[in-house]
Task: structure prediction
Amino acid sequence: MQRISNYINGELVEPISGAYLENFEPATGKVYSLTPDSDERDVEIAVEAAKRAFPAWASKSPEDRFEILMRIADLIKRDLDFLAEAESIDNGKPKSLAKQVDIPRAVANFRFYATAAIHFGSESYETVGQAINYTLRQPIGVVGCISPWNLPLYLFTWKIAPALAAGNCVVAKPSEITPMTAYLLSKICIEAGLPAGVLNVVHGLGSKIGAAIVKHPQIRAISFTGGTKTGAWIASQAAPMFKKLSLELGGKNPSIVFADCNYEQALQTNIRSSFTNQGEICLCSSRIFIEKPIYERFRDDFVQLARNLKIGDPLNDSTQIGAIVSKQHMEKILSYVVLAQEEGGRILTGGKRFILEGRCEEGYFVEPTVIEGLTFDCRTNQEEIFGPVVTLQPFTDEEEVLHYANSVEYGLSATVWTENLSRAHRVAHKLESGVIWVNSWLLRDLRTPFGGMKNSGIGREGGFEALRFFTEEKNVCLKIN
Ligand code: NAD
Result:
């Protein structure tokens, strides 16, 4: 059985303990590889390697770092098919999706930050007649990057690329549930000639090595994407140590459909925003609010389209809905369907585990599920489910729907559907979300600030924001006379 290795000090190595965790293929329910069960000792040698590598990496010019990061991007692109299949097997997502979205985005992340580092600048202020102030933005040193399982290589590289481009050395931890593509990236980094110790990838449990990274006194900044509870714990540990912290956390995203929308676009895109990646994207819509005059029509058409989605082996090109990432997560999703019914919800379609025949008969598949009849403030409509489950609710006017949309503790993303430009601006202005799409969804420009408000996190990724996060600012004041 294939064994994944840690990548420390430029080499692929076993965990010091010699212990491994079973890694499941969600589509079959079977163990197909082994992940290092690393501990604090592995983190320690990774930090030491990163510290040793830092002076040389930090003093390279952005142009030199650009060369290496672009080579990594090119190699990811060369291996696109292979990486897409690996991601699909590891996560359960359709291979076609990994090929169109996950892996191309990993390429784009490296390219974007390789070039961004060259364009990155800083301000200067003239205190007229007295002084010139200028700001230096210097790499921090050793930084920690911790990522989740839903978009494994996509989100892993979204952190690593800016950290490296800004001149830091990294100790990174992918999710133990989806370690494969981070391991394959380690091999690519070796091939690309990334100097030893600049990037270190340590595999294992969050409670062990994630916590060790967070608590390590030499790791001065943590960039984390994952659940809100984990984020709160990390914040509690990092705050007394005054670490820089970027937290991208959970969501419960509203989609607001006004009667004057472009109906067909709204319908089709809401299907995508609800069920892409089995609903396991932090930006997926989970509460769809529909203005009353079109409620019944939209509901019936939406349910019909949801029923038609093809659930299947993620490796088949025709599959639209793959497997849920783990048995435990599948059970969590199904428990919310039970809760929704207890809270008075009507299941319009789905609601059950889906059993396939053949290779995938023991896979973790859940039918796309649509629920109506719930109040905006019930648990089903307040808590993150993170699966192919959406609720539909009618509304009368803007004020009412904004109250519903903003009633949750989260504030990650929101989608607004209307052809009325003034209304689009008005509603976007009042929504409590860090990312708002009008008449679209997941239309991404990597230059824009990305992240959530409220319990969806602190800080923003993307664009120069990420380079600012991964650098320490220093003001130099020069008296003129
Ligand atoms: P999680 O919080 O369980 O795990 C995320 C990562 O943190 C994993 O690598 C895990 O091993 C590690 N971890 C766990 N406990 C830790 C600890 N005590 N200290 C340090 N690290 C620890 O989240 P998950 O289940 O992997 O991911 C799903 C969650 O991620 C959802 O809530 C989803 O909304 C969120 N998410 C948010 C965004 C965003 O951009 N805001 C993007 C994707 C996913």
